[in-house]
Amino acid sequence: MRWPRPARGVEKMNQAKRTEIFERLRAANPSPTTELEYASTFQLLIAVLLSAQATDRSVNLATRKFFPEHGTPQGLLALGEERLSDYIKTIGLYKTKAKNVIKTCHILMEQHGGQVPEDREALEALPGVGRKTANVVLNTAFGHPTIAVDTHIFRVANRTRIAPGKNVVEVERKLEKVIPKPFLLDAHHWLILHGRYVCVARTPKCPQCGIEDLCEYKEKTR
């Protein structure tokens, strides 16, 4: 299908294009999920908390060393902040993250019976857990149709014009509004993976992109 050019002053990306984009992303990856490794909702929470300003790969390398034996709130409390810091010292901001993880474990034990709450307000009340981390947990662990806008999603949403915005909250709100409902649950993962491996920051891999003909980015690579 040939897509008509939009009239001047009109938002470029229309719903027909958005639907086609997500249909293609789904066809290429029918069951997307996070690349963080975890065996429980609690481990997912800790992994996402650790992943702030760090790569999933670096987090996985670290958590493989202590999740098997200490991957519960009780286990990490027994491990303690100092020993946890030793395990995660290859991750950025590791001292602050270790402190937040231990504090989070205390709160989970004291206020939530050791369970991760399925509630945004309760999640965001945990040390080191912001809106993005809460969205990842709500989406991946509990099946909520939330969008956790990181640098990859922010870039893809603006570059393609799927949902342009000046900040992550604006992009999140737009994505939740314009993504067709059948794709909303998995959209978070598709957009992250697309930004991580195809629509990369410096030189996007447009010739390898499955949605290149639908994208409104003017400076496409050839």
Task: Give a description of the structure.
There is one protein chain. This protein is mainly alpha-helical. The protein folds into 2 domains: 80 residues, Helix-hairpin-Helix base-excision DNA repair enzymes (C-terminal) (Endonuclease Iii, domain 2, Orthogonal Bundle), CATH 1.10.1670.10; 100 residues, Orthogonal Bundle (Endonuclease III, domain 1), CATH 1.10.340.30. The protein is 56% helix and 0% strand. The chain has 11 helices and no strands. The longest helix has 18 residues. The two termini are 21 Å apart.
- Coarse morphology: elongated
**Top CATH class of the largest domain:** Mainly Alpha
Task: Report the β-strand fraction as a percent range.
Answer: under 5%
Distance between the termini: 21 Å
Task: Determine Rg (CA atoms, Å).
Answer: 19 Å
Biggest sheet layout: none
- Average pLDDT number: 93
- Indicate the percent of residues in helices: 55-70%
Number of helices: 11
Please give the number of β-strands.
Answer: 0
Q: Which ranges are low-confidence, i.e. pLDDT below 50, for 5 or more consecutive residues?
A: 1-11
What is the CATH architecture term of the largest domain? Orthogonal Bundle
- What would you give as the CATH superfamily of the largest domain? Hypothetical protein, domain 2
CATH topology of the largest domain: Endonuclease III, domain 1
Number of domains as seen in the coordinates: 2
| Run of helices and strands | HHHHHHHHHHH
